[in-house]
Structure formats: structure tokens, C-alpha cells
Amino acid sequence: MKQFSTWQVLKNGFINQKGWKRQWEDAAPKKNYDIIIVGGGLHGLATAYYLAKNFKLKNIAVLEKNWIGGGNAGRNTTIIRSNYMLKGNREFYEHSLKLWENLSHELNYNVMFSQRSHVSLYHSPSAIDNASRRYNIMLNTGSDAELWSLKTLKKKIPHLNYSDDSRFPIYGALVQKRAGTARHDAVAWGYARAANNLGVDIIQNCEVNGVITKNNNIVSLNTSKGNIQGGKVGFAVAGHSSILWQMANLGNLPIESHKLQAFVTEPIKPLLDQVVVFSVGGAHFYISQSDKGGLVFGGDIDWYKSYAQKGNLPIVQDVAECAISVLPCISRLKLLRHWSGVVDMSMDGSFFICKTPLNNLYLNAGWNYGGFKASPASGWYFADLIANDRPNRVIQNHNLKRFEKGYQIDERGAGPDPKLHG
Amino acid sequence: MLFIKCPYCGERDESEFHYGGEADISRPEEPSKLKDIEWGNYLFMKKNTKGIFSEIWSHSSGCRKWFRVDRNTVTNDIIRVYEINK
What we know:
The structure holds two protein chains of two kinds.
Chain A: H1 6-14, E1 32-38, H2 42-54, E2 60-63, E3 79-80, H3 89-101, H4 103-107, E4 118-122, H5 125-140, E5 146-149, H6 150-156, E6 172-176, E7 180-181, H7 184-197, E8 201-203, E9 208-214, E10 217-223, E11 226-235, H8 241-247, E12 255-265, E13 275-280, E14 285-289, E15 295-301, H9 313-326, E16 335-346, E17 352-355, E18 361-365, H10 375-388, H11 401-405
Parallel strand pairs in A: 1-2, 1-11, 2-8, 4-13, 11-18
Antiparallel strand pairs in A: 3-7, 4-6, 5-6, 9-10, 10-11, 12-15, 12-16, 13-14, 14-15, 17-18
Helix pairs in contact in A: 2-7, 2-10, 3-10
Chain B: E1 3-6, E2 10-13, E3 18-22, H1 36-44, E4 52-58, E5 66-72, E6 78-83
Antiparallel strand pairs in B: 1-2, 3-4, 4-5, 5-6
């Protein structure tokens, strides 16, 4: 693999950009792999990369049913933050943010990580108490957090709706300055390229449609490109985790698949320098401006489970109302694109990186509406689990047993209803 | 937009309804006699069907009654709407 560098850019400028090569190889499957990761999204690709990089493992394949970066990797609002509070989540997302901070260098690929601040508006005096607790925990565990008064907020983001008669008046904001956004496609391509460079086979258009087991072990996977044997198998197919789980005859998962919609407007001149969230004590809405100028935003999940990759209209209306109530100046912008992704909504709003009833199967699932930010750490800890056959201390409670034991990791305190964790 | 034909009020659009999730989950008769894993399965494990799925809805902005819907979770087509005990 050719390293990208300033020199390469200059050199290719002189030779009509003809020196660039394909960045990763579109492999055909071999009969047998030591490790198979099912799912070529950001989590699967990151897992393969860290298996090869951190543990020097070889003979790894990533199976993707469509093309890499074509699922939820390309269907999100690219927000990265670590403002999680509960034990396990706190360390996990902080580690993820630290990996993001060096990811472009690590992968030699510009993922356009922009630490532009995550500004969480609060809308009632009790919201500030609640949110201060969260942000104090962040401060005390090595992260960054700030409380902005209304005066500071007005100075930093002057065009929000500060009127006193709005339904949810703005009182101030809680801010994580190291948070921000990244380019989702670049993350998929960067991980694929780096993993492929370390010998990982990335196999596209290869859908798993059968799991062959024997004596509590997976022997092989039936795929649309033939039967593939694997020593260890990892599932990283959030959105469709239940389907694969049932294919392996393992019963049900504490997951419902729901749809999350997102929207992009026509591009405009720079308007919003931060990620702004209309949240604590108010509605649920988040918005940022992409480098191309489009406003990227989203809100709640659709209120019923579905695998349809198209959203429902009441949520379109709801999100549009939120957008206009917090940023009235965008009311006449046209929507350019709109999409919906199928997400694993877990029963307590937290993820799973864990061992399973089958000896050589490992599960990575339940990312709810926020898997993008988690991608690097998800790959990191999932690789650690697969390589060492034991969970890391940080994610030791992110397993399926937490439900029967009553140790749910419910960041939002919403109870056992998956649609409420959005 | 889903149009759901409430068995009591007729067809209305989805924003009048509240989603209740998977049908046929009944509370165990004697919870104290269950093992932890059985209680966990009752409370948390979901079929999460891709395809035709039986679920319950409530007409929360109308007659407030619960009823059953068979819906295709891939296309969102509603196959059948019926009263809860039928």
C-alpha cells in the first residue's frame, strides 16, 4: 500500500493524478479462515483492523452482504461525543473519542474528524441539575465538559431561538469541546484500506444465509459465495443482529430493530460551527453543518419496529418542527436528501460486546441510535474479546446476562422498552 | 404514513396510535416461582421478526382500546387488524 503524504499529492499533481492505485482489494473468499467477521460496516472493519494490528493475527475475513459503507455506515449523522455517565459506558466512549483523535494518523487516511464542540442545550432549571451531574462525572473521569451560561451561549451561537415565549426556552448549554463530527465514508474506506494492508480479506456481496453448528461450535457459514469455514466467528451486523442470532438457533435477543431517519438540506454558507442538540428537558433533535454546507440533522426514531429502510412521515414532521423551533432562520431551506437506517434498539439502550452460548462465536450488537461514535472502540474491544477469548474489564458487563441478573446499563433511565432509548 | 384500520373506529393515520410491541407476551402466572433466566426472557427477549409480525397497538388518540395488527416489517404493509382476543 502506498502511504498518502504531501509528497504523493504533489507528485500526482505533475503526472495527471495517474499514480493512485486501488486502495483495498476486493477479495474472493477462501475456503477457510481463522477469524470471520460478519458485517463490513464500521464496527466489523475496525474489528478486523485491530485484530491484525493489535494482536498480529492473520487469515481474517470480513463478510459484507452488500458493499462496505453501504449500510448504517452511510446512514448516520456522524456525531462523535463521549458524554456517557454510567460505569463501562464512560470508559468505553472516552476510549473511543481518544481513538478518534488520532484516527487519521493511525489509518494514514483523512477521516476529517472535526472537534467542533457538542453543545447540548438545556431547557429547564432541573435539566441543568441533571446534566451537571453527568458533566461532573465526565470531568472527574478525565474527560472535558463545560457549562455555558445563556450569555456565553448567545455570544457563541447567536442565531438560536432565544425568545422567552418558546415552548422550551433555552437556559444555557452543556458543552463537550472535544466532540464533533467525521466523514463517515472515509472511516469505512480508511479502516478497509488499513485492514487490507495487514492481510485482511474484505469480501463484498457475500451474504450469510446459514450457520452450521456442531457441539456448541460454529463449523462454517453458508454464504451467497459458498461455504466458508471459520475458527472463530464474530457477528457485527447491528440492525440485523436478531436475524443472524436466530440463524444460529440461539433464540431471541433483547433487541428490536427500529428505523432512525436523518436529513440533509441544500448547502448554505457557514451558519453553524458546532453540533447543537435540542435535548435536556426539551425535545430530541441534533444538527450540524457538513463541510459541503448542508445542514445534517435528525431526531427521534420512528415509534414502531421495522426493517424498512424508509422512514415514516410523522417523524419527518416532528423533526422539521424541532428544527424550526430551535433555528427559525432555516425554515425556508429545502431538504436535499433524507434517509433511514435500521438500528438495533436494545432493551436498556446499551450495547453488547460479549461471548455467546457457542464457544467460538462472539457478539457485537445493540448499538441503538448511536453506533457511529463507538466504531473505533467497538472494533478495539471486540478484537480484544475475540483474540483473548475473555472480555476486557471495561466491557465486562456489556453482555447478555445482565438482563437475567437485573444489571441493566440504562443510561437514559427509560426502562425496558427499546423505542424509548432513542 | 401507515393507515391503520382500528377495529372500533375505522381507518385513521398512524399518528393517532401508540405502538405496544410484540403480541402474545403474557405475564407469568407466578413470577416468584420463575428462575432468573425465565423472568429475564419474559421481560427482555424479543422475536424481532423480519417479515410478517404480530403486534399490539392502541388507538391512544381515539377510543383508547388495544388491538392486534399483523404487519410486514419489511414493507410496512398491514395484513390484518383484529380485536385482541380473536
